[in-house]
């Protein structure tokens, strides 16, 4: 099974191609500066235990142009790993904000897409770009199943005392103002690895995500109980 994973940002596309059940990607890369004439795509292919790097500088007016160039690299006889785009079985999309609607990885259909659009106001810098990547991928890979993985999903186990702010009730009920938590895929993975290393599935663990954004989470028995990042991905609580 060929699984293509996409992280569509405001001006970039990060991607990896997995040939399941192998856990290491056969191709990966980054298209950046989308919208400019000097956009850059850096594409990496694993072949015979060695990494082959291909880099192209070109004009990418939008995300569709960027993803089309990525597909061209994936199917390139030298730099690629596929004969044609129809070989991709599943496309996985990172979606930053799932609100209270999504607590797990979700197969994309029209109601789910409508819910993601409804969350644009909670993550205006992230969700619109994530959604654009979904729409482009649906056109380029019409045979593949499209799946969304939400940054907020892992933190849907927060107890009410942890996710509610000390604010008037209507701000929560009418405007959704609460702690959602982010970097959930990272916290979930790190917590699971730490528990496995300790040989203790009941362990109480503090996980720390450090990157372009940073957050911490308190995890017990694999469930998020508190987190340092709150209402949106651009403001910490």
UniProtKB/TrEMBL annotation:
SUPFAM superfamilies: Actin-like ATPase domain. ATP binds at residues 14, 209-213. Keywords: ATP-binding, Cytoplasm, Kinase, Magnesium, Metal-binding, Nucleotide-binding, Transferase. The record marks 183 as: Transition state stabilizer. Pfam families: Acetate_kinase. The keyword Nucleotide-binding applies. Its EC number is 2.7.2.1. The active site is at 151 (proton donor/acceptor). Its cofactor is Mg(2+); Mn(2+). GO terms for molecular function: kinase activity. Its main location: cytoplasm. Mg(2+) binds at residue 7. Transmembrane segments: none annotated. PANTHER family: ACETATE KINASE (PTHR21060), ACETATE KINASE-RELATED (PTHR21060:SF15). Homodimer. Belongs to the acetokinase family. Catalyzes the formation of acetyl phosphate from acetate and ATP. Can also catalyze the reverse reaction. This is Acetate kinase. It comes from Hymenobacter humi. The gene is ackA.
């Amino acid at each position: 099974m060929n699984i293509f994973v996409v992280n569509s940002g405001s001006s970039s596309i990060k991607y990896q191609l997995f040939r399941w059940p192998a856990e290491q990607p056969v191709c990966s890369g980054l298209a950046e500066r989308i919208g400019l004439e000097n956009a850059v795509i850096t594409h990496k292919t694993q072949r015979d235990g060695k990494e082959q790097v291909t880099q192209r500088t070109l004009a990418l007016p939008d995300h569709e142009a960027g993803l089309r160039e990525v597909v061209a690299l994936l199917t390139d006889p030298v730099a690629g790993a596929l004969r044609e785009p129809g070989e991709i079985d599943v496309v996985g999309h990172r979606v930053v904000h799932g609100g209270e609607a999504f607590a797990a990885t979700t197969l994309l259909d029209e109601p789910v897409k409508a819910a993601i659009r409804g969350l644009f106001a909670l993550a205006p810098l992230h969700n619109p770009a994530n959604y654009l990547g979904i729409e482009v991928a649906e056109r380029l890979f019409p045979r593949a199943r499209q799946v969304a993985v939400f940054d907020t999903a892992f933190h849907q186990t927060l107890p009410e005392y942890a996710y509610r702010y000390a604010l008037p009730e209507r701000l929560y009920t009418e405007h959704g103002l609460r702690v959602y938590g982010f970097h959930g895929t990272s916290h979930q993975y790190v917590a699971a690895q730490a528990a496995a290393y300790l040989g203790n599935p009941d362990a109480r663990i503090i996980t720390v995500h450090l990157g372009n954004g940073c957050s911490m989470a308190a995890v017990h028995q694999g469930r998020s109980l508190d987190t340092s990042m709150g209402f949106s991905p651009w403001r910490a609580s």
